[in-house]
Design a protein that fits this description.
By secondary structure, this protein is of the alpha+beta class. Helix content is 16%, strand content 39%. The chain binds zinc ion (ZN).
Length: 165
C-alpha cells in the first residue's frame, strides 16, 4: 500500500500545518506543538547491479517463489551508510564478497515511499550461500539480461536502463 505524505507529526501526533519556509522558499510541513519543521521522510534502500570481476556476468536472484529473477536489493538500516548496506545485503543474500562498489543513481519508488540508491558492484566469484530469503541466484550475460531475464516494464528494467545497461 502506498504511504501518503506525512499528515501528522511523527513525534507528537499533532496534525501538521503547511507554513512558508523562508530559506526553502516554499511551504514545508510544520508541527505547531513541537514548534519545528517536519521535512519529508522516506524509506531508504539500496539496489545493486552485481557483476563478476571480469564484468561479463551479472548476478540476479529469485525470491518469494517467483518465476523471474531480480536485482538484489534491501533496506538501509537505521544509522547505516548506503555503502555498508550494499556489502551487508550481498553477503546476507548470496554469501559473496564485494570487491568494488560504484554509485550509479537514485530512484524514487512511490508505492513504498522509498528512495533507492543504485550501485554497480563487483563481487569475487565464489559459491553462493543463499539465505532463506533467496530461492536461487544465477549469473547472466549482461547483454541479454534486459531482453530475457528480468520482467518487462519492471523496476529492474528502469534501474538497469538508468545504470546504462
Ligand atoms: Zn510534533
Amino acid at each position: 500500500m502506498a504511504e501518503r505524505p506525512m499528515e501528522y507529526c511523527p513525534f507528537c501526533g499533532t496534525r501538521l500545518e503547511h507554513r512558508y519556509h523562508e530559506e526553502e522558499k516554499r511551504e514545508i510541513p510544520f508541527c505547531p506543538a513541537c514548534g519545528d519543521w517536519r521535512f519529508p521522510r522516506y524509506n531508504a534502500a539500496v539496489v545493486m547491479v552485481i557483476l563478476n570481476e571480469a564484468g561479463d556476468r551479472m548476478l540476479l536472484v529469485k525470491q518469494n517463489h517467483e518465476e523471474r529473477y531480480y536485482l538484489v536489493a534491501g533496506y538501509i538500516d537505521e544509522g547505516e551508510t548506503a555503502e555498508h548496506a550494499v556489502v551487508r545485503e550481498i553477503r546476507e543474500e548470496t554469501g559473496l564478497r564485494v570487491t568494488g562498489c560504484r554509485y550509479s543513481h537514485s530512484h524514487y519508488y512511490e508505492p513504498s515511499n522509498t528512495l533507492m540508491f543504485c550501485y554497480v558492484v563487483t563481487v569475487a566469484e565464489g559459491d553462493f550461500v543463499p539465505n532463506d530469503e533467496v530461492d536461487d541466484a544465477a549469473w547472466f550475460d549482461p547483454g541479454t539480461v534486459m531482453e530475457e531475464s528480468v520482467p518487462k516494464h519492471s523496476l529492474a528494467i528502469e534501474l538497469l536502463t538508468e545504470a546504462g545497461y
